[in-house]
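Need WD repeat-containing protein 92's 3D structure for a figure. Predict it.
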Amino acid sequence: MEALERPQIICHVQQALNYTIHDVKWIPCSAKFVSLGGKSNGAGVVEIYSISGEGIEKVSEFGKKDHFKCGTFHASNLRDRHLATGDFSGRLQIWDLEDTLIPVYKTEKHKGVINAIDGVAGMTSGCGAPEIVTGCKDGSVMIWDVRQKDTPVATFRQSEGTQGRDCWSVAFGNSYNNEERVVAAGYDNGDIKIFDLKNMSVRWSKCVKNGVVSLQFDRKDIQMNKLVATTLESKIFCFDVRTQHP
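Structure prediction for WD repeat-containing protein 92:
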């Protein structure tokens, strides 16, 4: 009886796949999701699944030459629902899931695996232009406006002559009007940095001593309030980023 009183996570349905899964994302306002990853021969795979009363059913799939590492729908509107992906070769690509022959946007400015990606303002109004942020193995964090071809609108990286730390996680926040916006980035050495996109500066930083595998603000379209970070060794940190105290 005590076990039943505690919160439980119950597996609704499961399915075995023949490739390594790196990311899974719900398709907004639908009963569908995408699975991103790659096969043992190095090829990348994106599969689209639909949930029904009988379980999950594969709707379609497409493959490319390199593993897909991460994806997001947050920079796309609800009409298009384009999927932005980062891959093992440092390519940022945006896909129309109805026609995946060629991406609707593509850039190759990163010099390593794109470990993390996030988007903002695709499904909301009054909080600035839709943008994408990518974090890379080379230590760089790049901000993209898809209306501007092949050139990031902002780049944050280590100073010249120093070895950049591997960026493992990124997240948008504080986008409550058309001017304010920040990006949080987490690194393999435990550093967490919040970059102010209005002033183009580091607004806050903290070291949690273990690699930061995930970051998330409580909401992207309000004044930043809480930031949750998860790290190696099963640790979770919650920061009050209004007063910027842990």
